[in-house]
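<instruction>
Derive structure tokens from the sequence
<entry> Chain with its tokenised backbone below:
===
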Amino acid sequence: MTRASPQRHGQGLAPLAPAQAARPAAGPVGREDAIPAAAGVGFKPGHLDDIVADPGTVGFLEVHAENYMGEGGPPHRTLQRVRRDFPVSLHGVCMSIGGPDPLDEDHLARFAALCERYEPGLISEHLAWSTHDDVYLNDLLPLPYTAETLSHVCDHVDRMQEVTGRRMLLENPATYVVFDNSTMSETDFLRAVVARTGCGLLLDVNNVFVSATNHGFSARDYLAAFPLDDVGEIHLAGHTEQQDDEGAPLLIDSHDRPVADPVWTLYEEVIGRTGPVPTLVEWDSDLPEWPVLRAEADAATAILRRFAPARAEVRHDAHV
């Protein structure tokens, strides 16, 4: 496992393909728990009163599943209040979809119970591994893109969709190392997972920019190869700029600051090709006051409205 040389110039930007018309909504229509093709934010309990009093243009809230896997108590009372007023998407961070071992059935059952309890409009997980035996690691670790890895990732996606009864979205990772034994690109790997399992994709634009800068490839070339027709949600977040041991740029997907200008540029170009897609602004540490986070969502809303078709479209969770 080796880290490729980071990109030193150009910040990973090269022209994207021309814009395309917005595609039809995926999945069944008319569900009350639909996620709108609007901007949402990652929900933090400290923002609850402000969100209820002054939501601005926030169209939905996303919650991390692992924060609500207890039986009850204050977390569930808070989430019940949120769910009454907002569509909710459920985002997992510990399923270890990319791990070599079978999924933890207890963890999967708790995730499925949350789906039953709160009827999220979308569910998602990461293309990463985060467990070894019975140890949960506090990180989302990268994978070699090989036929063997593809096989067990597809098995895990199939199992998650079977147990939850829902079509899941798989998120592209932010990476800091690459594997010498990979035999396919990340975009080809994701396309193959979709073809085999019928899952959708969660496109994290900040992750694309972080990986492109760290490994020295073009973010726009990556997005030109990405299967955008399968994207059911987009994530945006801030990153931290550092340097590696050789003094080259090293970006960390830190989720602790505003979305960077180059990421906004890439996002606008993606929406120009896809039309409006549910878009989530993540901010997980060094939390700002609510007006700051709301302003990030408002900026995404402005871009979504610029490319909105005459008749607004809505994305839905697709049951399998």
